């Protein structure tokens, strides 16, 4: 009997295909969009974080999330709910206590990792498109092995979400005191709801609330919590982008009202 | 009679090859594999392609269609423009044998390196009891048809051949996750194995495996990331480690009635009985039972190679065709005393 099948003798070559990729669709569109939108957002956030003005609407007690909590000695006293202890230097953002953790939470987020590895690092730019690097060690070595610390930034993000929630509550403030309610409150509330949804949909959160268990049947409450987080988790990518949008919108709204470019639409007082 | 469409198919072997153009008839409702078969029947009778079920369930006809890893039998021709040239190439990540057929034994090698389900001590086969909620996460991964599209698309090995020894690939991460989430698996070192032996740290979760999976398994979200998080618990998280020591979570997670998480060993001669003895004991209650503790006859040596392992594929084995799962030297029908099965009988028939 003859056979064409032979025993493998060492390394055998792959098919000799000259083209680097044979994809005919617009695979470059998604990484291009990601790079453009993320760059735009980071530029806006950087400018705003260091601007040190137009972050507080004194009449209605609106505080933008980019300055929350306002803990610099440069903060308007009414905006500083948690004390003022950071030195007032131009290179230190007023919310320098929380901003680094928020940045690291998003930087180590499993969705953002996918987004920037693909778009900024081209590793790979799209599926079945060769990555642009000679060697590759993934997240096995310094510094990328620190992506494993994501859960700690998740814990920090929970605390920061509580602070943001507090900001949204104290913002129900009327001109001259008492209860007040305006369009800015809806913007702040919408932002906080989305921030909670994004934070709770985190993959580390899913693991912590129940994913790490081997026996769901022994932990019915955690199993239900895991089911809830799993549903949110399926939308993690959408929530990641939505929260970038709501953060920017909220900040821009507070800035515009604070600078007097627009006036807040008041429903009550 | 259908219309003529343009096709480019990679033809060649491990020495050389090129894309060859074809004009071929396409009819309504056909898939790419149908067109490949038409090419075989008409213009290229020696075109090599691996296929089997034509229903997206065997995982044989993996190929790259217009640069995307797909199953030939699940890619409808209606998804292409009538004027579009459809390019069909073999999987890039594995060595080519001929035309569209590649040698995927890398995957069998990796499968062999992953320890199988480890039975828990103190629970005999046939006495395993699991809650549905405990196993449904693992059941998603059982949908895998082993088409190896995820292995092929993963840039860790697709673009970096040198990572092949250190990296097991998405298909085996879902297998590792399946076993680590299994309520009765007794191994406690699967998280460490995922890092040290499977190289899960190489994965940068760019999700191409999930994108190409024809069974729509959420490979990244439901297997790789949970496995990464489990590895973090074990290796990078001092708080989780401390918590498990203080609250003894390792015992909490153990199934009821377990004395130890040790891996079960083969029953020794002292606990075994002959089928007849077992039947007599069980027959007293008149129930239907199997003697799972019977010591099976020792099998003959398996036809292993110099590395002490079975051949990865039938191509590399001594015998034509697949090996018998019972051992190639086992003759059927087996002698009655060698059979575990006990035919159910009513008590009054004794």
What descriptive keywords fit this protein?
heterodimer, A: 269 residues, mainly alpha, two-stranded antiparallel ribbon, 8 helices, 4 strands, globular, B: 350 residues, Ubiquitin-like (UB roll), Fumarate Reductase Iron-sulfur Protein, Chain B, domain 2, 3 domains, five-stranded mixed beta sheet, 7 strands, 11% strand, Succ_DH/fum_Rdtase_N (chain B), iron (chain B), 4Fe-4S (chain B)
Describe this structure in words.
The complex is a heterodimer of chains A (269) and B (350). In chain A, helix 1 (29-51) crosses helix 3 (110-119) and helix 2 (99-107) packs across helix 4 (150-170). With 269 residues, chain A is mostly helical. Chain A is 48% helix and 3% strand. The termini of chain A are far apart. The mean pLDDT of chain A is 93. In chain A, strands 1-2 form a two-stranded antiparallel ribbon. In chain A, strands 3-4 form a two-stranded antiparallel sheet. Chain A has one domain (29-131, 147-268). With 350 residues, chain B is of the alpha+beta class. Chain B folds into 3 domains: 3-100, Beta-grasp domain (Ubiquitin-like (UB roll), Roll), CATH 3.10.20.30; 105-252, Fumarate Reductase Iron-sulfur Protein, Chain B, domain 2; 267-350, no CATH class. Chain B has 12 helices and 7 strands. Chain B has helices spanning 32-41, 105-113, 132-141, 149-153, 155-158, 170-180, 190-196, 208-212, 219-235, 238-246, 249-252, 275-283, and strands at 3-12, 17-26, 62-65, 68-71, 86-89, 96-98, 101-102. Chain B has a 5-stranded mixed β-sheet with strand order 2-1-5-3-4. Chain B starts with a strand and ends in a 67-residue tail after the last helix. Chains A and B meet through helix 3 and helix 6 of A and strand 2, strand 6, helix 5, helix 8 and helix 9 of B. Chain B: Its cofactor is [2Fe-2S] cluster; [4Fe-4S] cluster; [3Fe-4S] cluster. Chain B: Pathway: Carbohydrate metabolism; tricarboxylic acid cycle. Chain B: InterPro entries: 2Fe-2S_ferredoxin-like_sf (IPR036010), 2Fe-2S_ferredoxin-type (IPR001041), 2Fe2S_fd_BS (IPR006058), 4Fe4S_Fe-S-bd (IPR017896), Beta-grasp_dom_sf (IPR012675), Helical_ferredxn (IPR009051), SDH/FRD_Iron-Sulfur (IPR050573), Succ_DH/fum_Rdtase_Fe-S (IPR004489).
